[in-house]
Amino acid sequence: MSLFKSRNMIPVTEFRQFSEQQPAFRVLKPWWDVFTDYLSVAMLMIGVFGCTLQVMQDKIICLPKRVQPSQNQSSVSNVSQAVASTTPLPPPKPSPSNPVTVEMKGLKTDLDLQQYSFINQMCYERALHWYAKYFPYLVLIHTLVFMLCSNFWFKFPGSSSKIEHFISILGKCFDSPWTTRALSEVSGEDSEEKDNRKNNMSRSNTTQSGPEGSLVNSQSLKSIPEKFVVDKSTAGALDKKEGEQAKALFEKVKKFRLHVEEGDILYAMYVRQTVLKVIKFLIIIAYNSALVSKVQFTVDCNVDIQDMTGYKNFSCNHTMAHLFSKLSFCYLCFVSIYGLTCLYTLYWLFYRSLKEYSFEYVRQETGIDDIPDVKNDFAFMLHMIDQYDPLYSKRFAVFLSEVSENKLKQLNLNNEWTPDKLRQKLQTNAHNRLELPLIMLSGLPDTVFEITELQSLKLEIIKNVMIPATIAQLDNLQELSLHQCSVKIHSAALSFLKENLKVLSVKFDDMRELPPWMYGLRNLEELYLVGSLSHDISRNVTLESLRDLKSLKILSIKSNVSKIPQAVVDVSSHLQKMCIHNDGTKLVMLNNLKKMTNLTELELVHCDLERIPHAVFSLLSLQELDLKENNLKSIEEIVSFQHLRKLTVLKLWHNSITYIPEHIKKLTSLERLSFSHNKIEVLPSHLFLCNKIRYLDLSYNDIRFIPPEIGVLQSLQYFSITCNKVESLPDELYFCKKLKTLKIGKNSLSVLSPKIGNLLFLSYLDVKGNHFEILPPELGDCRALKRAGLVVEDALFETLPSDVREQMKTE
């Protein structure tokens, strides 16, 4: 190894990355993979050793050949003359008269060291067979390919993620105390109990034989899993952490099984990499067997370099030929064994049905009859695990049993969710209340009711929730969210909620999930309903009981209603905000809106409205109106909004409006106006007579011109014309000195006026997608504008002076 480092070679340890995998992956490596890994290391050493010799020693040594006479039968005298004529005379022997002159004996070639080096290189490149030159490199490359193929399924993103997840779950299942308890409870009885069970299989199930015998003898094979019912003394055997881990494992196994059984990418990857190794083995054997004889010790070299060296024919010695020849035979032996092992692997892959796995033997041994068989990649990994140790599959099977899962849930639910752990999940929700979200639990932990500071409880995807009377301990509870939950409630708990609950949110897939007790919450102020309701919802008897919600102020229905329910009209006298988010179902018969005299906010979203409902114009207290995602084309009725003196927010976005009527000027109280995602082509100058507007969104239309009257909007702070066809901006726009956000991207603008420097409060500017060639340096006067708030192409940003760029980059 030190030799490698001294010559700046790569250490062998650096090659580990080609075959290295996590230590836990060894459970998915059967004996043949382990064996081929060792063979790969041996072949790698051959390649590295050969490459090292190539670097450390001279590759070839060449000497010039003497010129032979043309006739082979010439006399000895002619040979001597020819030699004398072509070969310099041997140096004179030293004499006593000349003792200093000492010369080496041999044939003198008159070649210096550089010429010999040149001859060696030329002959190495021209005369030596390519196999003899590149043998160690070929060994190295082939071995690395073998190593990559053997471990590719551990590295490929589509398969490695599944393997890592599986190994992680497998290790936890193997070590879980719940696995040991489940197997010992079911199959760990003593011999006497087993004998009694066998004898009583043919007798009546009512036979009694002691406390333990009665349990065993009265059970059939299918009822044995009921032994998972553990009394309080046994419950303490699993601590909170162990119970929590086992609970999470059941969920992980369930999700992992659903995910992995969908495909067979692991099986396909393993088969392909094995086939590739077999093909490569055949290729290596074929060409190596044919070319190994090309590694020769002596090589004749004929190169036309006589004008440079005086010689044309050379005899060369390949210094490593003997060693390379032995190494090649050794390499062929290793490759042959490697290939035979791969052929056995292919036989194993195709002889057995590896895409199906049966737990029949586990079911018979443990008595847990509901362990399902698995398929595809899940089955393949279990087959691979069995090659390592079948015990893994047996212990893993416990976590595929629904019976085992249910018993664990009953045993550990409260131990899993301690008050300290629940407090860690507390967060502040949109209503600024301290909320505890609980998602996909097996039930409602009793420890929830020990968190007395709790203000909001959110239960999501929890079946069979039972709210006990202990909820009365939560004196600060004001909000309850039930998302896809079936809830039952204790009578004492209902009395508590009637007095204290202010906000209720119910998300449901079925009408039956609507809790019938919610209609009696007399102090409820906000109700949010999300789910599919029938079109004839107003005739639903249960919803008519909303009239009992005398304190209700906010009602939100996200569903498919075709008309406003009568139950909603019954609470209209005190309703302040109503939101109806439909799925595209047309909302008709809106005259009932007139009765909601105290309504301040109204949202009618995706209700397929073609005109602004006339009933809206009777809502004199209305402050905000949102008609998003409807089918509005004409808004001539907008003139009637002048009677709504308190209207400050009007959102007509995501419609098909083609123009803005000039009556818009009469809405002088407007502060926020949104016409984005429409088909408006012309902006009337009368629009800007609404001089209180602070927020104006005209993005995603077909506007080509901005009237100069926009400068009248001295209160304007947000202005967007993104994705229009505007070619120029009026200078009057820069009179709106309170402007903080300006979005003019994706237009046809070619020049940005230097007057933009007048917008001292500008903190967000979007100019991307235009035809600008340069940005005005006056942008530096916008001190509040930083690089993060400037949306522009990088090349265009570079046109700014360096000091301006540095200023914007400075936080």
Automatic annotation (TrEMBL):
It comes from Bos taurus. The chain crosses the membrane at residues 35-56, 134-154, 329-350. Heterohexamer; oligomerizes with other LRRC8 proteins (LRRC8A, LRRC8B, LRRC8D and/or LRRC8E) to form a heterohexamer. Homoheptamer; inactive, likely because it is not targeted to the plasma membrane in the absence of LRRC8A. In vivo, the subunit composition may depend primarily on expression levels, and heterooligomeric channels containing various proportions of the different LRRC8 proteins may coexist. It catalyses: chloride(in) = chloride(out); taurine(out) = taurine(in); iodide(out) = iodide(in); 2',3'-cGAMP(out) = 2',3'-cGAMP(in). InterPro entries: Leu-rich_rpt, Leu-rich_rpt_typical-subtyp, LRR_dom_sf, LRR_domain-containing, LRRC8_Pannexin-like. This is Volume-regulated anion channel subunit LRRC8C. It is a multi-pass membrane protein. Keywords: Cell membrane, Disulfide bond, Endoplasmic reticulum, Ion channel, Ion transport, Leucine-rich repeat, Membrane, Phosphoprotein, Repeat, Transmembrane, Transmembrane helix, Transport. The keyword Lipoprotein does not apply.
